[in-house]
From TrEMBL, chains A, B:
Catalyzes the oxidation of 3-carboxy-2-hydroxy-4-methylpentanoate (3-isopropylmalate) to 3-carboxy-4-methyl-2-oxopentanoate. The product decarboxylates to 4-methyl-2 oxopentanoate. It comes from the Bacteria. The record marks 134, 185 as: Important for catalysis. Mg(2+) binds at residues 218, 242, 246. This is 3-isopropylmalate dehydrogenase. Pathway: Amino-acid biosynthesis; L-leucine biosynthesis; L-leucine from 3-methyl-2-oxobutanoate: step 3/4.
Length: 345, 345
């Protein structure tokens, strides 16, 4: 018999509410003989205010022992911008080498989109998670004076780029359309751009069945709204990936249904699964949050741990629920219950 | 009597075709007593292949003498990515200190948009033009090896940020809604983010009538497709501005109608006006290009040179043409003729 030892980080705002539903669905979908153990961690604004800590070495040691991590959302207006993002979210992604940030986008029939004509959308973005402008490299001199200079350094390594590009090619290879688009800005960011482009072309030679193309990030945003059907798999840098996956979420059902996995493919560290949305303090505690993104993140978590059939069942339940929900207004809990009932049956 | 001494850079691909229409409209709209002198420059792929040059010091000396510059498009697949972008376009923006990159977005009634429900769109993006990740700072070590490291450095100065933020506040102040949104990623790019945010807040205190808000760049892309009406004036960094203005163009009538001005507000160097679109080699030479973006760039040029009434006439002509064009298929020349007839009458 199997077991899953899960770290649960509800976090701030609606994080608490959506994670509760994610766990409900997880419990409902797992076979009886799989033992689910969960340990809850109190990271986020409350702990920061109480202790000044965001994520300590001891925390990392403890998290490391789990098979995977489910996260709700971290962030609160009471904490200065950047403190929890850099001090917790990014620190964890870097510490656990979550270099494959997986963000699927699929527009289901009947689901609202701001785009006219209900286009076909079914692609996945593979966002690099441990390099680029996210490394925290850079600094400030003469802070607060009229002579202040602030720099941000995007760091890109052959090692880091090649492993994520390989992952993306393998994913493209396994999908029916077998198409991979590199998104960058290699005509302006020529140093990083050459590195990404050269490695992309080199690896492409090993995947002759995969059709490739290249788009500048600005052009990619255009196609995401005018012709999203052209995308199958996209591989891109950390910052470009951050930007285009929010746009991708917006056009394919909204941020309420966008899931993500921060994956360490080697398994050296546990991977982390989280909705793309934030803590939404404006609606927190009111039972208004849509738990769908978290539930779809649970599906990614199940797939990552080898529970493919269960992952598919969760995704089918969500698809059915989304297609049938129409204009109905349901609470977070009601949506969770409906999904739990679907996966159990 | 007045005169305009204009540098004309048709450039590559459809640049030639659209600039011809821009000049047609300029000639048609200017009062008889304004003498229009134009000097054409051969920058772009052809000259690069013939001479290896993109933009020399002598070129800059010559361009400097003009009142303004009208540019079509620069870029061709026969030239390695980055050579003309960095060697011509960006070199010129930097050499002439074009720090205010103005990009208006207005969706006219009846104009096609990928968004459902024909939302109201009427905002302008003030993109910083001489700093951020566009400076060319950075480099590569161990190029081509498995140990390659490539960096890109975003450089942000109090001087550079404050002048563009002030420009944006002044623009917001002069518009009916008086609203300014700062777009950045200050929770991750904390060095540059603090600089932008602090200066934005400092200058805001001098413009009490202007309502302000802040959005992370990823969230901004969401609102650009779900609620573009919320924007009035946006101020942002060079790279974020590049990305969101392509998306803004896509939702507000397409890249065929998006104009831009690379402005040196002090007048120390001539400002440059250009369509946001590129050279589109796939449709070049076929009379298929829409010259509207260039014509609207001519309107920005006229306004910059003090010809407000003429600028408005051009914009009204374009608005009327766009609203009435329906599904008609016209050549580049036909659209130009129609617009010239409208502004002349
Ligand atoms: C909160 C922030 C650090 C994060 C990011 O920029 O990666 C978020 O926007 C995301 O996309 O997961
Ligand atoms: C061609 C390129 C250098 C340019 C930019 O990135 O600024 C273009 O995309 C633009 O927006 O004018």
């Amino acid at each position: 018999s199997h077991s899953i030892n899960l770290a649960v980080i509800p976090g701030d705002g609606i994080g608490q509410e959506v994670v509760a539903q994610g766990l409900k669905i997880l419990a409902a979908v797992l076979p009886q003989d799989v033992k689910l153990e969960t340990e809850e961690y109190d990271f986020g604004a409350k702990r920061y205010h109480a202790t000044g800590e965001t994520l300590t070495d001891a925390d990392l040691d403890s998290l490391k022992k789990h098979d995977a991590i489910l996260l709700g959302a971290i962030g609160d207006p009471s904490v200065p911008s950047g403190v929890l993002e850099r001090g917790f979210l990014l620190k964890l992604r870097f510490a656990f080498d979550h270099h494959v940030n997986l963000r699927p986008s699929k527009l289901l029939p009947g689901v609202a989109t701001p785009l006219a004509g209900q286009p076909e959308i079914d692609f996945v973005v593979v966002r690099e998670g441990t390099e680029g402008p996210y490394t925290g490299n850079g600094g400030t001199i003469r802070k607060g004076t009229e002579h202040e200079v602030a720099t941000e350094v995007s760091v890109n390594t052959a090692f880091g780029v090649e492993r994520v590009v390989r992952d993306a090619f393998a994913r493209a290879q396994s999908r029916p359309r077998k198409k991979l688009t590199l998104v960058h800005k290699n005509n302006v960011l020529t140093f990083a751009g050459h590195l990404w482009t050269n490695i992309f072309n080199k690896v492409a030679a090993e995947f002759p069945e995969v059709t490739t193309d290249y788009l500048h990030v600005d052009a990619a945003t255009i196609f995401l709204v005018t012709d999203p059907a052209r995308f199958d798999v996209i591989v891109t840098d950390n910052l470009f990936g951050d930007i285009i996956t929010d746009l991708a979420a917006a056009v394919s059902g909204g941020i309420g249904v966008a899931a993500s996995g921060n994956i360490n493919p080697s398994g050296e560290f546990p991977s982390m699964f989280e909705p793309v949305h934030g803590s939404a303090p404006d609606i927190a505690g009111q039972g208004k949050a849509d738990p769908t993104a978290t539930v779809l993140s649970v599906a990614l978590l199940l797939r990552h741990l080898g529970y493919e059939a269960e992952a598919a069942r969760v995704e089918e339940a969500v698809a059915a629920d989304l297609t049938e929900r129409g204009d109905s207004v349901r609470t977070t809990d009601e949506i969770g219950d409906a999904l739990a009932a679907r996966v159990a049956s």
